[in-house]
Amino acid sequence: MNYNEQIKPNTEFMIYHPSELNNGDIERLNHLYLPIVGSEAIMTFLYFNHFKTDNETLSINLHHTLLDGLSTTLSKLQLSIERLEAVGLVKTYQSTKEHDDLLIYALQLPMSAAEFFNDTILSFYLHRKVGKGAYKVLLERFTYPKLPSNVVEISKTFKEVFDTTDVESVSMTSPNLRSQRVSQGVNIDPDDFDFDVLFTHLKGTKIDRSFFDKKSRLLIAQLSLLFKLNAYDMKLILMDSTSTQFGIDARKLKQNARKYYQRENKNRLPNVSGQSKEETSDNYFDKLEMINPLDRIATVRQHAPHDEDLKIITELLTRFSFTHGAINVLLEYVYQQLDGELPYSYVIKIASNWHEAGVTNAQDALKEIQSFKEKQEKFKTSKTYSKKDRPGEVRPAWLDQQTDDNNTEGSQASVDADEEFDALLNYFKKGE
After folding, report:
1. How far apart are CA 75 and CA 102, in angstroms?
2. Global pTM?
3. What was the pLDDT predicted at 179?
4. Is the domain 3-112 a CATH 1.10.260 member?
5. Taking a C-beta distance cutoff of 8 angstroms, is the pair 195, 165 a contact?
6. Partner of 83 for a Cys bridge, out of 37, 98, 187, 423, CB 3.0 to 4.6 A?
């Protein structure tokens, strides 16, 4: 749906929410969905759920009531709704009546924890957003022990408890009562993947078309989106994930798709990122997140990355919980400080320090640089001291890391206390 053409402050809308949120739903929204869609989208979802309507006749309102209630803009509201649609928390319908400018937002309950962590896209995207450590904590939070194996159920059946001899078969209509409408997960259409081309590649192999049921097709579409796989890539993966007896093994398919991507891309994990006109044109920090570090360093150097650059970027992507934006800031910071040098040990030392400080994204990284600058200015004295002997100065551990070039002017520049943060930020924004 093109919201730019259809949503206006005076566009009518209706909230359809037959399901009721409980505390468990809200817990999953906050811990599992919020890292993916952002706080504004979750606030929009909660506001939708608490939007009062008449149970007999659903009320129609104008979008300006949402803008006022959420204190937001039309473009931000659009972005929030699109994200909620993408993860399956909202389904949007449009009236087919001519000249009827009405949208219906049908709300879906969040998936159960088990369904969420078994969802290929959502679980992987959450892992990329929060990092390995936090992901493990979340997994433990929603884990519940199984029943002991040495038990047998002895519950009574309904017939054993209640007398049903006089119950007559009664045919009666029932009203459309409130019901649980649970999210089905990420909004992906299996038809987005070209199965006809895949089946052409599979001719003459042990893999039969009958193996491709609805569930398998959806999983293949999800993996192709996540790991950017074409039909031929998927054929190679399926060959190692399918048996003539049992068909497609979903667990093996996921594992082999990940291994295939890492092998083809030298262990770099894919960066699944949102796409919106607002993010790509107006928000500087989101721009940094959208740029692949390999592309960014190539732009900065004006030539292809060195082997050492590839080694550093691979290490940063696989070892730390940094987004692309944080890595871009880190690389450009060191590149500027050391006059075009990127010593491996020096970069990793800064990365370790930032990781301990909780840096994850571009905004965190720039704040960490600014924080260091402010500490330097705080302990400045009117007397000029050498860089090594400034009394009272508190410096991050990575500034004391010695590199192979510690006798060069570039290494001295790395500890310049009077480097202006604003100048650094402007340097990043230029992209030069």
Report:
1. 18
2. 0.49
3. 53
4. no
5. no
6. 37
